[in-house]
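Task: fold both queries, return C-alpha cells.
Query 1:
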Amino acid sequence: MIGTRPIDIEVDGGVTPETAPRVVAAGASVLVAGSAVFKTPDYKANMDAIRKACG
C-alpha cells in the first residue's frame, strides 16, 4: 500500500516484548509503549526488553 513512499507506520497500544516483533514484521517503524515501559520503576530495562525483542 505505501510502496516506496517514506511513510512511518506507528503502533500505539499493546506493545510489549511479546508483541513488538510481530508489529515490526507487519511493517511498523514506530512503536509506542506506555504500560509496558512504566509498569515497573526500571523503565530502561523495560525499553531494552522491547528493543531486544525486535532484534
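Query 1 returned. Query 2:
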Amino acid sequence: MDFGGFIKELNKAIKKENRSRRKADQSEIAKLTKKDEFDWMDLFEERKQKAVQLLQKITQTEQEIDQMVYELYVLTEEEIQTLKIS
C-alpha cells in the first residue's frame, strides 16, 4: 500500500467512526488536515520500511528452511524442482 492509499483508508475509518459517534451523541474525530497527513507520512514510511525488512527476513528464513529439508531428505535436484512447482 502506498501513502495515498493509507490516507484514503484512514479517512474512511474516521468517517465510519464519526457516524457511530453521531449515533451515540459523542463528539466527532477531526478530519485530517494536510499537516496531519505530513505527520502521518513519517510514521507510515518508518513502519513500511520495517515491514519490508521483516518480509525479506521471512523470505530468507523460508529459503534456509527449504534448503535444510532438501539436505535432510537428500533430495535430488529433480525432486527439489518438483516440490517447488507444487
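Both queries returned. Flag for query 2: The first helix runs from residue 3 to 23.
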